[in-house]
Amino acid sequence: MPAQGAKRVFTGIIEVQGVVRSVTPTAAGVRLEIHAPNWSYAGSVGDSVACDGCCLTIAAPPRDGVMVFDAIPETLAKTTLAAWKPGRSVHLEHAATASTLLGGHMVQGHIDGVGTVVSNGPTPGGGWELTIEPPVELMPYFAPKGSVAIDGVSLTLAAVTAKTFTIALIPTTLAKTHLSPLKPADTVNLEADVIAKTVVNYVRYFAGLGK
Questions:
Q1: Is 10 assigned a catalytic role?
Q2: The model's pTM
Q3: What is the pLDDT of residues 180-190, one digit of tens each?
């Protein structure tokens, strides 16, 4: 999905959780107000912010911890944003800079599709596993120990089947994100690893050319 505004990259390390304050239909889509009073990042008009993994552009001067974004129909069609309501928690991360520690993996903020939660909760061994069913066309991009961004969170694939993948969530991720309350049938934004997408695309369309 094309990002809105200039191209930026993120790391998938969530900085803070904001809360949707308002969702207002406009001629161009919807205008979102997200309140993040505890975020040290001030932001300016034109800056890119990953909101649940979706790269959006700040559309008005932030005030009192409130950031304003416009989401166009393309974004609404390919992400969970169309279903957002006031009170929803949103993962926030500002665009990376040359000095940013790459603690996760390279995330573009271009959502590839919406996945559905199959199961989510503690395991008998004391861990926590989240299983997602992505759109079938995305399955070639997922491999065990590969990377995925779920609602903007950089995560490692623990297991992959023909139709699903499973993530093992650590306590820090459970504490700092809104992944733990997810229930079966809930939906999440998915961005596959850009390297995996590049390799699959090359093998699919260009491998063997010239031989």
A1: yes
A2: 0.92
A3: 999 999 999 99
